[in-house]
Amino acid sequence: MMPANPTETEPMRRSRKAILQLVETINACATLVARLVADIVLLRQELLALAQQHPEFAQANQRELAEFFVYRLSLVCIYALDVMLIGGFAEFCARALFPHWPFIGTVARFLTPLAVLGFELGIAAQRHAAKVEVEEALPGAPRSHAVTWWTVLGVAWASVVPAITWYTQHAAGSLKLATSIVLARLGPVLMVIAFILHLAVLFAGKFAHDAKGHIAYWLETHKLRRREAKASADAHTKREVFQRAVVHYVHSLDHHNTLYPGQEIALGPFTEETMSLAVQVFGSAGPLNIANNLLRTRRGINSP
């Protein structure tokens, strides 16, 4: 730490301290901008690598996007139908098994159909993977029955919702109420609809695989682009702070050196990031020759 000048007055000391603080701010902003720019470059490289790894999602046409959307919409519709068909049965069983948990009925009403559909999606994914493995098997390889067994398991699981629907409608028909009788007569229709929809989920394994892949790709690219946008906004903000700090610094330094001859303050010290950013922001012929002033210590000459 430099010893205090005995002839230094309080205004001179405050001016010197403010200038040194501006130097610290300028260097800190430049370092942060350099770090943010490096992060932006890395994020763009990750986005490019992701697009190169999955061109089928990065360059998907409108027909494929429509197929992905329709498949996801169909899953939502199937889930809504399952909530209406087996949600009441799941709530009844949950309240009977856990009578001291008042919220368990509502949770079971909406969570049980989701679990049924999720398990069925898992079976469909396994069946699709087994089918791809069979198609890619070498000639003469042992025959695999995995596709058959996964299909049998999927059909059996797809029968769960129709079975619960039949049971609940049969129980409702015994109440001898007009509404219950109508619902009981609609039971076979509801069973057929539920069975067909769940079979569609089972045999649409490829659509499920592609749709899930597209969702994962979209989420990852959205996350990377959001981080890139945030880093770009932060870099732009820090550039503006840097610009204002440099302008303030040049004016303060010129004012101090003019007001206190013999007690001039030397330029800087500035980091490499500061010198590079000054040229980017102001150029070699910037206002008040700011860039030249900042680069003066590097060149070792007095710029006009």
Kindly describe this structure:
By secondary structure, the chain is mainly α. The chain folds into 2 domains: 10-50 and 226-299; 67-203, no CATH class. 80% of the residues lie in helices and 0% in strands. It has helices at residues 10-53, 55-58, 62-97, 104-135, 146-158, 160-173, 178-185, 187-203, 205-259, 272-282, 290-299. The longest helix has 55 residues, at 205-259.
Query: How much is the average pLDDT?
Result: 81
Distance between the termini: 32 Å
Which range does the strand content fall in? under 5%
Radius of gyration: 35 Å
Q: What is the total number of structural domains?
A: 2
* Largest sheet composition: none
Number of helical stretches of at least 4 residues: 11
Q: Based on DSSP secondary structure assignment, what is the total number of beta strands?
A: 0
- Measured as a percent range, the helix fraction is over 70%
Estimate the global geometry from the Cα principal axes.
Answer: elongated
* Poorly predicted sequence stretches spanning 5 or more consecutive residues: 297-304
Order of helices and strands: HHHHHHHHHHH
Overall structural class, as computed from helix and strand content, comes to: mainly alpha
